[in-house]
Design goal:
By secondary structure, the protein is α/β, with parallel strands linked by helices. The chain folds into 2 domains: 271 residues, Aldehyde Dehydrogenase, Chain A, domain 1, CATH 3.40.605.10; 185 residues, Aldehyde Dehydrogenase, Chain A, domain 2, CATH 3.40.309. Helix content is 39%, strand content 21%. The strands form 7 sheets. A 7-stranded mixed sheet has the order 14-17-18-13-12-20-21, with helices on both faces. Strands 9-8-7-10-11-23 form a 6-stranded mixed sheet, with helices on both faces. A hairpin with a 2-residue loop joins strand 2 and strand 3. The longest helix has 22 residues. 53% of the residues are buried.
């Protein structure tokens, strides 16, 4: 393919158009068309899954070969960094600096997966400790599940794909994958680069189209052995119900929180909380939405937070200096603005922002909010941060735990005892001490609890999800 501006399907090594009418993809800032895609038909979904199955059974890649191929993909991603960055900016609205960082992170995700391909092993089981089993040995093997199906969200259109595809290949599986309609081009380019690196044609199959049709067909497909999804909690629940006993990994929604204690480095906390609340336009499942600040530190902390927020450059994501760009659509920006106005009508106060221009919503800080306001009790997925004072640390922890979600939380404190108390008591999958809720390193385990999902991401941990543990005993 010469261009990613026509997002084609990839089935068994062949690029093809979908069978449906063209769907326009727009630049999220300008609103101008940047390309099209055609949704896959049910028959094309079936063909992609069948190709992945044939390739899984016919072409077994040894761990060292997986390492070589995935390392080559990482190198090709970096060599194509400017093009990939430009593509992410246009299709997602994520500013240039964050998009450039995403490209580097995607390369690292492939590189870490390559390394883990050489380390994927089981363990010895001490059966000799059982009575009468002194001459028996036992060990486990990690065996690939087969065909991995994946669907991702729009907010990290390259690295999120890498977190599904690279561990699947590293653990010996094959792939049938669907990116979102709003951001298809960076995923398409990644699949081009994987073919260029030499990944066997049938090992990677790419599908485009709506989740309600193409995604649903994939979810229900008996030929997909493992399904991995990043997106909303309601959709995740439907996927889990549809998959039955077949395994899934679901990275879902959240109403992420960060706690700032009076003994913390307030300047550092202000910088990180502003970044966590507003980078990527607040459109990350770990973006800080609720910011709990110890009341005795509120007068010192709030001016620092407001100063950091006002310094953010808002507007054109193609400008390398921009920090906050457009949301994924004007409709989403209108929705978030409506929630803010609703909160104000119910007694909340805007400390910063609150205005909208098209799809661009100014970074917004609210005070005097109540738990029953939608800006607190539902995931806003927008650059809106609510500041909530607290007097007692356990009170703050209870408030963080009060939602049905549990993905990630931040905690700023200089008190080691309080840090460990928080780590034990805050009911989330990830607790970041002296960092905000959105902190993430791509090699770490990343998993939610409660309605924030099941299974884990991070190459090593995703590879465990994508393999079966098989026990082998040997009687000597």
């Amino acid at each position: 393919m010469s261009s990613v501006r026509n997002a084609k399907l990839l089935i068994d090594g062949q690029w093809a158009d979908g069978d449906a009418e063209p769907i326009a993809v727009i630049d999220k800032y300008s609103g101008h068309g940047i390309g099209t895609l055609r949704a896959a038909s049910p028959a094309q979904v079936d063909a992609a899954v069948a190709a992945a199955r044939r390739s899984f059974e016919a072409t077994v890649l040894e761990p060292t070969e997986r390492y070589r191929l995935l390392t080559k993909v990482a190198d090709l991603i970096l060599a194509d960094a400017d093009n990939l960055t430009r593509t992410i900016v246009a299709e997602s609205g994520v500013p240039w600096k964050d998009s450039s960082n995403e490209v580097a992170r995607a390369a690292e995700t492939f590189r870490v997966s390559a390394e883990e391909a050489k380390r994927l092993v089981g363990e010895m089981v001490p059966v000799q400790g059982a009575a009468g089993q002194a001459r028996r040995m036992a060990l486990t093997l990690r065996v690939p599940r087969g065909v991995v199906g994946g669907v991702t969200a729009f907010n990290s259109p390259l690295n999120m794909v890498a977190h599904k595809v690279a561990p699947a290949l590293a653990s010996g599986n094959t792939v049938a994958f669907k990116p979102p309609e709003a951001t298809p081009f960076s995923a398409t380019r990644l699949f081009e680069l994987m073919l260029e690196a030499g990944v066997p044609a049938g090992h990677i199959n790419l599908l485009h189209g709506p989740g309600s049709t193409v995604g649903q067909r994939m979810v229900e497909h008996a030929g997909i052995d493992f399904f991995t999804f990043t997106g909303s909690t309601p959709v995740g629940k439907r996927i889990r119900a549809a998959r039955g006993l077949r395994p899934v990994a679901l990275e879902l929604g959240s109403i992420a929180a960060t706690i700032v204690c009076a003994d913390a480095d307030l300047s550092r906390a202000a910088v990180r909380c502003a970044q966590s609340g507003f980078r990527r336009q607040g459109q990350a499942c770990t973006s800080t939405q609720r910011l709990f600040v110890e009341r005795s530190a509120l007068d010192a902390f709030l001016p620092l937070l407001l100063e950091q927020t006002r310094e953010l450059k808002v507007g054109d994501p193609h400008d390398p200096q921009t920090d906050v760009g457009p949301m994924i659509s004007e409709a989403e920006a209108v929705r978030a603005e409506t929630w803010v106005r609703e909160a104000v009508s119910q007694g909340a106060r805007i400390l910063q922002g609150g205005t909208r221009r098209g799809a661009v919503l100014e970074p917004t800080i609210l005070a005097e909010v109540r738990p029953d306001m939608r800006v607190l009790c539902e995931e806003i997925f927008a650059p809106v941060l609510s500041v909530i004072p607290f007097d007692d640390f356990d009170e703050a922890v209870r408030a963080v735990n009060s939602t049905q979600f549990g993905l990630a939380a931040g905690l700023f404190t200089a008190d080691l005892q309080r840090a460990f108390d928080g780590a034990r008591k805050i009911h989330v999958g990830v607790v970041h001490v002296n960092d905000a809720s959105s902190s993430r390193i791509d090699l770490m385990p990343f998993a939610g609890v409660k309605d924030s999902g099941v299974g884990a991401e991070g190459p090593k941990y995703a590879m465990r999800e994508m393999t079966e543990e098989r026990l082998v005993t040997i009687n000597l």
